[in-house]
Amino acid sequence: MNRYQSLILAELYVYLTLREAFEWAELQLLQFEEGRSGCSRGFDELRIALRALFCLSRTLHELAEVSTSVRTQTLLVLAFAEPNL
After folding, report:
1. Which pTM was predicted?
2. Is 21 exposed, middle or buried (0-12, 13-18, 19+ CB in 10 A)?
3. Where are the alpha helices (DSSP H) in 1-85?
4. Which sign, positive or negative, has the C-alpha torsion 73, 78, 20, 12?
5. C-alpha to C-alpha distance for 16 and 76, rounded to whole angstroms
6. 24-83: per-residue pLDDT in tens?
7. What is the pLDDT of residue 61?
8. Are 80 and 18 in contact (CB under 8 A)?
9. d(Cα 42, Cα 25) in Å, to the nearest integer?
10. Fewest CB within 10 angstroms: 51, 61, 71, 85, which?
């Protein structure tokens, strides 16, 4: 595998990891809003989900600042795009 292929795989891994983490946090928030989580656990889950979203947004910002690759920037945008768009 050459460096170019390795870079593509690394970028794909970043995309998939960010997308999965974002979807998990979004699900936690949805469950909290719908009252499906227990009352005592609900606030903990909400706090964890909000912290995850904050960390993801910070990571996205940092990656966008250092990335000169259009492909990487596109993957990052797709990772946080609304699925309906």
Report:
1. 0.44
2. middle
3. 3-33, 39-66, 70-79
4. negative
5. 10
6. 777 777 777 776 655 556 667 667 777 777 777 677 666 666 666 666 666 666 666 655
7. 64
8. yes
9. 13
10. 85
Tokens 């910002």 belong to residue: 61
Say which residue the tokens 């795989």 belong to. 9
Return the pLDDT at 84: 46
What's the pLDDT score for residue 1? 66
Q: Using CA atoms, how far apart are residues 1 and 5, in angstroms rounded to an integer?
A: 6
Q: Are 7 and 70 in contact (CB under 8 A)?
A: no
Q: Which amino acid is at 14?
A: V
Length of the chain: 85
- Rounded to the nearest 5 degrees, what angle is found at the Cα of 77, between the Cα atoms of 72 and 25? 115
pLDDT-derived band at 21 (thresholds 50, 70, 90) equals confident
